[in-house]
Amino acid sequence: MTATRPTIFDNALESADKRWPIESPSTTVFDFNYDAGRDQLLRLYDKGTRKQWIGGDRLDWSLEVDPENPVGMPDDIHPLFGTTWWDKMTPSERGEARRHLESWRFSQFMHGEQGALICTAKIVQTVPDIDSKFYAATQVIDEARHVEVYSRYLHEKIQMVYPLNANLRSLLDDVISDSRWDMTYLGMQVLIEGLALAAFGVIRNAATEPLGKALNAYVMQDEARHVMFGRLALRDYYPQLTQAERDEREEFCVDACYRMRDRFLGEEIWERLELPKEVADYVANSETQRVFRGYLFMRIVPVLKDIGLWGPRVTRAFEDMGVLGFADTDMDTEMANDEAAAQSLDEERLAHIEAVAGDA
Question: Are 161 and 155 in contact (CB under 8 A)?
Fold first, then answer.
């Protein structure tokens, strides 16, 4: 392994408090109807308990990672590929551009997973139904594991960490500080987790570096259950609300979706690389990045339709973003594909271990 380098996280926050307190008024709810669980949620809880895994065992941390191409993504999907800025870079500068992009991307995954850890612990307290408390408890350990493996990958392999992105920070602030249990579900289980699933999928499907590829595939296997959890709980709850209450939640979704779209512009990367300010404008408006950011909503759009937040505000916003076509995505099929991809990687690793043992 190469010598450890100072991380951007340390450099950027050396004089700042590295803890971020958020005031979160909420009501803790006990539910004594222990035998009143919904079958679908109880089955999901059972699956969640059986699918637990250990990051230090399931992932092969002995694999070497090239810091200048950490995940082995093809250059033609780098936001700057094909531009004059990219063409003028030396091979070493291109390596730094790849390293910064993946460091920034994995850092936001890590910070978002800590947000999910906090939100799910809050759900255990505040959700009124015992079956939801059961499943949320399994998700708490899932999210702790995700923070652990992303942190380890960043610190040991990429050796660079970015601070929390401003758009993600503002959304986490809203979700955590809201006292209503369903808003925690909506913001985290549906919106943030849904966007993360699609972003993880880009890496899982395109990466050639086996550790980063497997890490994202295994996290996706968990996250697909988490989004399903949000669907099941909110699909039952939102028909009970007034139209005014649903309208308020739709307005939140529209604002959150625009903020999440902007989260993937990565302005802080180009600033760190000391590139001209017009680079950020190019990335924001390029056709390649527009298509990429649209793809990130593939998991969110059908879920919002399924849970009944599908009024004019939401449909207009998705039409404006160019993602309305995802409304009919089969989420059950996507979840099955996530399971199959993780299982395939497990089988490949087991076959490799057996082959090595046979040669010994």
Answer: yes
Cα separation of 197 and 338, whole Å? Answer: 10
- Is 128 in contact with 31 (CB distance < 8 Å)? yes
**Contact indicator for 115, 175 with CB cutoff of 8 Å:** yes
Cα→Cα distances 86→83, 92, 95, 160, 270, Å: 5, 12, 11, 21, 12
Taking only the tens place, the pLDDT of each residue in 254-271 is 999 998 887 778 899 999
Q: Which of 337, 107, 137 is nearest to 229 (CA)?
A: 137
Residue 215 to residue 360: CA distance in whole angstroms = 28
- Give the predicted TM-score (pTM) of the model: 0.91
Report the helix count and the strand count for the chain, using DSSP H and E: 17, 0
* pLDDT, tens digit, 9 for 90 and up, residues 128-157: 999 999 999 999 999 999 999 999 999 999
Right CATH number for 42-352 from 3.30.70.60, 1.10.620.20, 1.20.1250.20, 3.90.550.10? 1.10.620.20
Question: What does the domain layout of the chain look like in residue ranges?
Answer: 42-352
Contact residues for 164 (Cβ-Cβ < 8 A; gap 6+): 20, 107, 108, 111, 172
